[in-house]
Specification:
Elements (H helix, E strand, L loop, with lengths): L1 H14 L3 E4 L5 E6 L6 E5 L2 E7 L1 E6 L2 E6 L2 E5 L3 E9 L6 E7 L2 H11 L16 E5 L2 H12 L7 H17 L4 H8 L4 H14 L7 H8 L3 H12 L3 H19 L4 H7 L5 H12 L3 H10 L8
Antiparallel strand pairs: 1-2, 2-9, 3-8, 4-7, 4-9, 5-6, 5-8, 7-10
Helix pairs in contact: 1-3, 2-4, 2-5, 3-4, 6-7, 6-8, 6-9, 9-10
GO molecular function: DNA-binding transcription factor activity; sequence-specific DNA binding
InterPro entries: Homeodomain-like_sf, HTH_AraC, Tscrpt_reg_HTH_AraC_N
Pfam family, one: HTH_18
């Protein structure tokens, strides 16, 4: 508990206001919210997040995950997530330490250790793309030391890489070791799914066949369906729809496009179908949703 209090105090000191905050360390972001939030749609990148206060809910496809200050979570794929702070106050805010996962660094560490978990082999089944575990004293200690380095910027180039490697070491040897090591293994089922995800993200506006995505992932179509669902909690076509609608939302809000143009830009031939699916996902038709987001830009956050 003392370690969690220390980490919470350091996050508070380096944020001071609600929202997402970049730090002087590339790949380390902090989040603070002093009240429960509305649902936030975003794309969560591979990362490890340590919760130091409050409670949050994440919905991925048909999965709902609730986590609090006893937990850390590991995200191993680009996941469309609907997240919501469900417990926070001015006295006890939601606080999060978010650390990006670098596949190249993880691969180098796994290779140096000469260790591959059973699930890392090409035929091993991947786990969910977002998984939860209880934070350990060792992991919290490393996170605290990394945060303290923010107070001495001159030390960052020399000491931060050492602490960052320790955090990854704790991850590679903790409860989520199979997931973390699978990121590092080029031909793991997880990375085959990640190749499929990357292809869909690059080609989301175009129609595709499952066979084409399976070819890109170097999997059979049946294996793609099975493992894509295991990682993302949705099918490739459902994933494409999420990406299309999130991209359209950005075009309407950021580029000022009208709904019909934005829908066509992301691959919809029917404006009415686009409007229906947009409203189903975001809870309001495009124009009303854009007005709401302009009034409350925090609803576009990604953690």
């Amino acid at each position: 508990m003392n370690q969690l209090n220390d980490l919470a105090a350091l996050i508070e000191r380096n944020t001071g206001s609600d929202g997402l905050h970049e730090t002087a360390l590339p790949g380390l972001r902090l989040a603070r919210y002093s009240a429960p939030s509305a649902p936030v749609h975003g794309l969560h990148k591979p990362a490890m997040c340590i919760i130091a206060g409050g409670r949050k809910q994440a919905m991925i496809g048909d999965r709902i995950i609730i986590y609090d200050k006893a937990c850390y979570l590991v995200v191993t794929a680009d996941l469309p997530v609907v997240s919501q702070v469900i417990e926070a106050s001015a006295e006890a805010p939601y606080l999060c330490f978010a650390f990006d996962l670098n596949p190249a660094v993880l691969a180098a560490m796994v290779s140096a250790a000469g260790v591959i978990a059973p699930g890392d082999a090409p035929g091993g089944a991947p786990g969910p793309g977002l998984a939860l575990s209880r934070s350990t004293p060792e992991l919290l200690d490393a996170a605290i030391r990394l945060m303290r380095l923010l107070d001495t910027p001159g030390d960052l180039p020399f000491l931060a890489p050492l602490v960052e490697r320790e955090i990854l070491y704790r991850l590679l040897n903790g409860d989520q070791k199979d997931q973390a090591r699978a990121i590092a293994v080029a031909d793991s089922r997880l990375n085959q799914v990640n190749r499929a995800i990357g292809w869909i993200r690059r080609n989301y506006a175009q129609p595709f066949t499952i066979g084409r995505v399976a070819e890109e992932a170097r999997m059979s179509t049946s294996a793609l369906h099975e493992h894509f669902k295991a990682v993302t909690a949705m099918s490739p076509l459902q994933y494409q729809k999420q990406i299309r609608l999130q991209e359209a939302r950005q075009l309407i809000l950021g580029a000022g496009m009208d709904a019909a143009t934005a829908g066509h830009e992301v691959g919809y031939d029917s404006p009415s179908q686009f409007s229906r699916e947009y409203r189903r996902l975001f809870g309001a038709p495009p124009i009303a949703d854009a007005a709401r987001l302009r009034a409350r830009p925090e609803l576009m956050a990604e953690i």
